[in-house]
Amino acid sequence: MMAVGLQFFHLPPEEKEKLYSDEPSKKIRLSTSFNIRKETVHNWRDYLRLHCHPMEEYLPEWPSNPESFKEIVSAYCREVRLLGLRLLGMISLSLGLEQDYLEKALGEQEQHMAVNYYPQCPEPELTYGLPKHTDPNALTILLQDPNVAGLQVLTGGDQWIAVNPRPNALVVNLGDQLQALSNGAYKSVWHRAVVNAAQERMSVASFLCPCNSAVISPAAGLVRDGEAAVYRSYTYDEYYKKFWSRNLDQEHCLELFRNDRLQ
């Protein structure tokens, strides 16, 4: 997976530019930074975003160069989806819910991925690969570059720690929708990506997302009697549009959906 992703980003610019778009709603696109239309400081990242489920709908539009791209990436996506659904089942059980509760609550889940490329950066102190943020989806499964560290997570207030790559390991980040569905029992992970002056770096982030019409609201058993849920009910479509309308490093988007926030 990492090798074929790197081959794609090493293609001639004229080959890659056919996929370029800065329109967030486009299902298959090559882009750069995060929200290039709004940012005053850009991030040191190029990425290929691919929607992956249902596979038969999107696969024909994926890149055909490198030649092995579709075969390798589709196999990876299918395995990641199976893993993600198993993880959702275990999280449901840990909350005292039926094993399939979260899978059902999220609806016919979409899946997409970002194949991230961070070139060598001559002045890494001036930018990030991605600034601090949480993910707007339900679950993120990350394949790190095995040779170069770049991911950092926030713990204990304002302390950033590096998540160094480990052989044959994946990193699992919980997204905003699991924080809302668990009524705050689980927390989405603040993280960022740093860049390196001497080495290029890759990562592959796979996202399991609710369907756009899914209503995000915690199970009744997770809300104490007489208390309101931490977050108001909303559709994932509403949340996703709000997320993409803002800069990545603003306050936690989920804060805008708190029941105790003044409207």
Automatic annotation (TrEMBL):
Q: What PROSITE patterns does the record point to?
A: FE2OG_OXY (PS51471)
Can you name one GO molecular function term for this protein? dioxygenase activity
Question: What UniProt keywords apply to this chain's record, in alphabetical order?
Answer: Dioxygenase, Iron, Metal-binding, Oxidoreductase
Its GO biological process terms? defense response to oomycetes
Among PANTHER family, the record links this protein to: OXOGLUTARATE/IRON-DEPENDENT DIOXYGENASE
One of its Pfam families is 2OG-FeII_Oxy
The protein here is known as: Fe2OG dioxygenase domain-containing protein
The record's section on Gene3D superfamilies has:
B-lactam Antibiotic, Isopenicillin N Synthase, Chain
SUPFAM superfamilies reported for this sequence: Clavaminate synthase-like
The source's domain of life comes to Eukaryota
Q: Which organism is it from?
A: Paspalum notatum var. saurae
